[in-house]
User: What shape does this take?
Amino acid sequence: MNFTSFLRMAIAAAVLGFATTATHAQQFFRIGTGGTAGTYFPVGGMIANAVSQPGKIASTAQSSAGSVANVNAVAAGQLESGFSQADVATWAFTGTGVWEGRPAVAGLRLIANLYPESVHIVARKGTGIRTVADLKGKRVALDEPGSGTLINARSILAAYGLKDSDLKPEYIKPNQAGDKLKDGSLDAFFFTGGWPAGAISELASSGTGIELVAIDGPQVEAIRKASSFFAGDTIPADTYKGVGATRTLAVGAQWVTSEKVDGNLVYEIVKSLYSAEGQKAMGAGHAKGKFITKENAVQGAGIPFHPGAARFYREVGVLK
Assistant: This one.
C-alpha cells in the first residue's frame, strides 16, 4: 500500500470515527424545578438521576422560580424541560387564564403528569389565624412572581373576598418565608407542592409551632368553579409534627417540554423513568414518588403529549 492510499484510509477512518462519536454524543436534558426548599427540586433531582444514562443522557435539576418561569424558559429554549402545575401549563398552551393577553405557548408538550400538589397555608402558632379570612391584615408570603403558588394564593384569597392589598404581602420563596415565620416577622405563607415539604417539616420540628389553615366551606366550590384543575385533598395528620389532618385543595404537577426537543431523546427518558429500576428509585426517593407511575402519567392532560412520550405510553398500553 502506497502512502497516498494509506492516507486516504486514515482520513476515512477518522471521519467515520467522528461520525460515530457525533451520533452517540451525550445529550443534555435540564429540568427546571422550583425553590430548593419546595417539592419540585428534590423530585426533579430524583428524576434526573433516574433517567441519566452515562455517556448518553445527562439530566440535571435546576432551581427556578416555579411553574410560570419554567414554561417561559422551555418556550424560549433556555431549558429542555420543566415542572409546571397543570393549570399553568394549560393556560400557557391555550393563551387563557393568567396567559390571557400574551402569546400562547403553542409548542408546549407534556412528558408526564407526576403527582398531586397540595395547597399549604402555614400559619405561626399564636397569630389567631384559623381560616383563610383571618389572613386579612396579616403579614403573608405569597411566593415569587413566576410561581404557581402565587396564582393559587390569589384564586383562594379571591374566593374569600380578599386580594393582595388586604394583606401585608411579601413575595418570597418558602424557605425565606420559613425563616421569617421562625423569627416572628411573618404570620403565614402559601406553598403549593407535594407533601411533605422540607421547609415546612423543618419549621414544625424546630419548636416554632405551626398550624395548617384549612381550605374548606362553601368557598371551595367557587374556587373549583374558577379553576377546574383543583381537586379536594387532605394533608394527613402528622405529615408535619404536631399538625392534624387538614382539608385543602390540590392540582397536578406536570413535566413539560417543547415540541422541538428530539423525540427519541424524550422516548428514552420516559422509558427509563418507568423502567423497573426507575420505579424503584421513585418509590424510595420521596413520599410523592409512589404517584409517579405510567398509569398516572397520562391523567389530567390539558396539553398534547410530546410524540416521544406518546410513543412510549402507547407501547405500554396506557394511551390509545
Confidence is low (pLDDT under 50) at residues 2-7, 9-23.
